Amino acid sequence: MKAEKVTIRIKKKQQEVVGFLEANKIDFKEMDIACDEDNRKWMRENVPGEKKPQNGIPLPPQIFNEEQYCGETGKCSATEENEIQAEDEATPEGEGEAQAEATEAQGQDEEQPATEVQ
């Protein structure tokens, strides 16, 4: 039952991120990390340690601008130039792609899409 609630929460957050990006006409690419171990490993390694939960495994979605960590859902806004700014860390101007990556909840086999913003 708890895993189902986590999955629902994750999917809602992912929908919020995709809705935000679409509403602000920001190009993005979703990245599936549930089935792609390389993407999942990259996300886990690139979320800064101080931003990871106690168990060390960040849950989706996570937003990146190329290699730079931007934050989690609910902490973003868009600039007039359609760049993403996280509440705790602004995205530098002129940077290319951003990625919002998601991971499956612990112990779940269900796929979780992720988002890469271009």
Automatic annotation (TrEMBL):
Listed Acidic residues bias regions: 80-98, 107-118
Region Disordered: start-end pairs: 72-118
Gene3D superfamilies xrefs: Glutaredoxin (3.40.30.10)
Pfam families, sorted: SH3BGR
Organism encoding this protein: Ophiophagus hannah
Residue stretches spanning the membrane: none
Protein's UniProt name: SH3 domain-binding glutamic acid-rich protein
InterPro entries the record matches: Glut_rich_SH3-bd (IPR006993), SH3BGR (IPR051033), Thioredoxin-like_sf (IPR036249)
Family: Belongs to the SH3BGR family.
Entry GO terms, CC: cytoplasm
Coiled coil location: none
